[in-house]
């Protein structure tokens, strides 16, 4: 309050998840958390599942988990080549973009209804993302090649 930091309790993620990145949408008051968890023994034994949780933060009451959204593979958590970072919200379109490093893709999440509305092939080893809301561009860094690609947010 009045420029002073205040600590508030949020969700505790102590269930085996590894948190990688997060983004916030002031338009919808939603927080998006990218994480990996050990794969389901029936569906993905020994693997890693990558998800984006959608949270509704609140200052004066418990946070609400609205949804968990499956996204593309970010890589093995114990590998130095793990990705999973790179999530951003376009404040103009409301779209949420998550870079899936191992899959070489980007998940486009509908910011109002919280579902993956598109998966875009990016190339090898996409890692980070920033948004230029004035020009409606996404800039994605391809880690292994040291290059940057530009994508128009037309989703």
Short description:
The protein has 155 residues and is mainly β. It has strands at 18-25, 30-38, 48-56, 64-70, 87-89, 96-100, 105-109, 116-121, 126-132, 137-142, 147-152.
What does this structure look like?
This protein has strands at residues 18-25, 30-38, 48-56, 64-70, 87-89, 96-100, 105-109, 116-121, 126-132, 137-142, 147-152. It is mostly beta strands and 155 residues long. It has a four-stranded antiparallel β-sheet, with no helix packed on it. Strands 5-6-7-8 form a four-stranded antiparallel β-sheet, with no helix packed on it. Strand 6 and strand 7 form a beta hairpin. The chain is globular, with a radius of gyration of 16 Å.
What's the tally of helices?
0
Give the averaged pLDDT, no decimals: 85
Largest sheet: 4 strands, antiparallel
Structural class: mainly beta
Gyration radius from CA atoms, angstroms: 16 Å
- Percentage of residues in helical conformation: under 10%
Distance between the terminal alpha carbons, to the nearest Å? 37 Å
């Amino acid at each position: 309050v009045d420029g002073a930091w205040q600590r508030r309790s949020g969700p505790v993620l102590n269930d085996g998840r590894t948190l990688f990145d997060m983004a916030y949408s002031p338009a919808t008051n939603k927080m998006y958390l990218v994480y990996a968890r050990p794969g389901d023994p029936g569906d993905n034994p020994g693997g890693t599942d990558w998800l984006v949780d959608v949270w509704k933060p609140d200052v004066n009451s418990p946070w609400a988990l609205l949804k968990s959204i499956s996204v593309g593979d970010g890589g093995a958590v114990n590998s130095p080549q793990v990705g999973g970072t790179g999530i951003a919200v376009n404040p103009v379109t409301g779209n949420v973009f998550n870079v899936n490093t191992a899959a070489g893709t980007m998940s486009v999440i509908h910011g109002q209804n919280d579902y993956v509305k598109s998966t875009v092939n990016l190339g090898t080893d996409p890692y980070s993302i920033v948004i230029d809301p004035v020009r409606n561009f996404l800039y994605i860094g391809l880690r292994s090649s040291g290059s940057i690609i530009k994508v128009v947010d037309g989703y």
